[in-house]
Amino acid sequence: MVAEKYARNPLELAGFVIWVLFGLCVSEGSAQLSENFYAETCSNVESIVRNAVSQKLEQTFVTVPATLRLFFHDCFVEGCDASVTIQSTPDNTAEKDYSDNLSLAGDGFDTVMKAKQAVEDVCPNTVSCADILAMAARDVVALAGGPQFNVELGRRDGMVSLASNVPGNLPEPTFNLNQLNVLFTRKGLNQTEMIALSGAHTLGFSHCIKFANRIYNFSSGSSVDPSLNATYATQLRQICPRNVDPSIVANMDPITPNEFDNVYYQNLQSRKGLFTSDEVLFTNKRSRSTVTTYAQSPAAFNNAFVNAMIKLGRVDVKTGTEGQIRLDCTRFN
């Protein structure tokens, strides 16, 4: 049926074939991932990583949002290949030193390094940093009260980490719905999955500068974003006065900041989304019904989040003979 349609126009048929082949290439790597990838080579890798993550969490709760955010930033640039953990050298400025990544908390990196060392002690040169980051991101969600789920494994570590590859590949706090959809679609994620992944903002914090425009200089007609709850705006001004110390932060979820739950979506309904890119999910009619569903049903949100996380973990993965298994997550072998 489809072939008959495109056969009338050779150029369109050629384009269709290229599109199909591109789709096959994109899915080829993810097709080699499996939940039991290390069953014969490092059968207890998941418990090793989980123990390392748990020990790190005992030191600081920042472990949770920092590790989860690190996974997102990794997958959105060069795919899920641990390129974000590479340190810069005199000859190369790596991803982690791009301006938008400078706010990635050190505890996320430290979590991966500690887990990697624990795994190397038992299974040397076997498990990739990319897989360790994927497992750690899953574990922090569960440890914060969120859903438990299986992670597909088999990623290889990337061989490229350039700060110049970051621009245009990370969502900005000022994005509207169209901009969010364009970016996530490029990563193979649809609007529903984008909204589910945004629920990670139930955890963590943001530096004041990232949302200061919403509470001080939104527009010529209003210093405060009118879509922002007035009481919440006042609270944010108290936390982030003008000329505040750049290190000061505000919780993404002002109600239950240390729990992985669906309160983030309830906050959006109350006009308490910290970023414009958060609140737009509710103010825009095209996405509002999904926000309402997740706000009303923790189970619906958890299921959607798990499915979206699994799909995110397949983005532009390196498998087979691609990339390498790094001995040190901070540098190429």
Account of the 3D structure:
The chain is an all-alpha fold. Helix content is 49%, strand content 2%. The protein contains 14 helices and 2 strands, in the order ααααααααβααβαααα. It has a two-stranded antiparallel sheet. Helix 4 packs across helix 5, helix 8 crosses helix 13 (285-296) and helix 8 packs across helix 14. The longest helix is centred in the first third of the chain and has 22 residues, at 10-31. Mean pLDDT is 92; it is low at 1-26.
Poorly predicted runs are 1-26
Share of β-strand residues: under 5%
Count, helices: 14
How would you classify the quaternary structure?
A: single chain
Query: Rough shape?
Result: globular
Task: Give the H and E element order.
Answer: HHHHHHHHEHHEHHHH
Q: Roughly what percent helix?
A: 40-55%
Question: How many strand segments?
Answer: 2
Major sheet: size, sense and barrel closure?
A: 2 strands, antiparallel
Distance between the termini: 50 Å
Q: Helices and strands: which structural class?
A: mainly alpha
Characteristic terms for this protein:
333 residues; mainly alpha; two-stranded antiparallel sheet; 14 helices; disordered N terminus
Mind sketching the topology for me?
Blueprint: H1 2-7, H2 10-31, H3 45-59, H4 63-76, H5 106-122, H6 129-143, H7 177-186, H8 191-198, E1 205-207, H9 212-215, H10 230-239, E2 249-251, H11 263-269, H12 276-283, H13 285-296, H14 298-312
Antiparallel strand pairs: 1-2
